[in-house]
């Protein structure tokens, strides 16, 4: 048997996986997405909102050109869903399911163009097995919009570099701009585009051309709402991004923070798939960096991880911040490991026909372990995704409950409503936007809620009119920090505060979060 290490490197795309024009895979992909979409539309009403969703829903009640924490796209989309389906969980999440299906379809189309039907189908399956993406497809967050625009932009960019039609580059700039209106990370797609144009010799002439100028102008026009809003509010986004970057007075090198970031990325993908992605990126850079498709994908993945990896040297970012890199990452992962699995399968098939030497037996063992590893990675990701859809039967303590942020809110608002009724209070104040937003969504009359007075720009609530003390002699203050001192600004407005309820919110008979409700008096 020939030593595999002595064979020439395999092409990035195997000949049998070259793109072909057949409709069978398209129909199968459409059927898979249709089934998933119907299931998700049914399932989204069976789990409560998470605080960020409720926060964005509150934004949708105050439509604006932008908001303190993010761009305006998520609020606009929720407002559209509420217009069609009312102020309900289904109305909030409807477009999350629709856009997640759109992202999967864009990924399938992209992979089919780059790597053929088989790879495209596996990309579609893998994208809906990875816990971060599968569970995230149920929640109306900025990542849903961000991933859709990123995948759509990659498809349009691939067309643009081959057709070189000006309208495609204008459309590309608008799409990247729309993604930026949802998540500022999408602005990195411009960096990814320029990186590819610089790296690919046949396309280097496009770096400074009418096409990229048109793209830049279109992007600038698309993000005008954010620019105008920042001019009106004193560039609040600059301060918000600075605080979220983790860079306070100076930038510090903390290697453990970087390890925390990398570990978090691996965990949310499912550990074996996360490690497999790292191996695929390294292997593709090493052996296939000259391939056009490989360069295209690497340029839409590595710059994102590099930027967030750099900032994680100072302070580890959240696991979802680098999510757009997964669009290209999934395609690289699928191509790389399908090629290795196919090669291992051929080796094992050949060895069955004759007596193996000791060396051959070692190679066979490696091939078997490789195939088992691929199967285990898919199985573990599938298991994690299924479990994360319903963890009630595990009866986990609240501190270990992965769905805790979406549990116990109905019971929480029952306690708040009971206190409102008993004490005849109309003013509700939360200690954090999470509590204030959840009360506003889940209470029967969906009343306006407030936070204690805070510095301008601290959160979106500080940009809206606050409560008037003279109109409300009493207030309820609800906090999930029962051991903390009451805010000074609250005590200044309502000096006399007494506890009227001290409880743990319940979900399926389990304690979720500890709350206290204070009855506060102006005099």
Detail the topology: elements first, then pairings.
Layout: H1 24-43, H2 51-60, H3 73-85, H4 89-127, H5 131-136, H6 142-163, H7 166-182, H8 188-199, H9 210-222, H10 224-233, H11 236-245, H12 255-269, H13 271-287, H14 292-299, H15 302-312, H16 325-351, H17 358-389, H18 409-423, E1 428-430, H19 433-442, E2 474-479, H20 488-493, E3 496-507, E4 510-521
Parallel strand pairs: 1-2
Antiparallel strand pairs: 2-4, 3-4
Task: Write a brief caption for the model.
The protein has a domain at 404-521. The protein has a four-stranded mixed sheet.
Keywords:
single chain, 523 residues, four-stranded mixed beta sheet, 20 helices, 60% helix, globular
Overview of the molecule:
- The protein has helices at residues 24-43, 51-60, 73-85, 89-127, 131-136, 142-163, 166-182, 188-199, 210-222, 224-233, 236-245, 255-269, 271-287, 292-299, 302-312, 325-351, 358-389, 409-423, 433-442, 488-493; strands spanning 428-430, 474-479, 496-507, 510-521.
- It is α+β, with helices and mostly antiparallel strands and 523 residues long.
- The protein has a domain at 404-521.
- Residues 1-8 have low confidence and may be disordered.
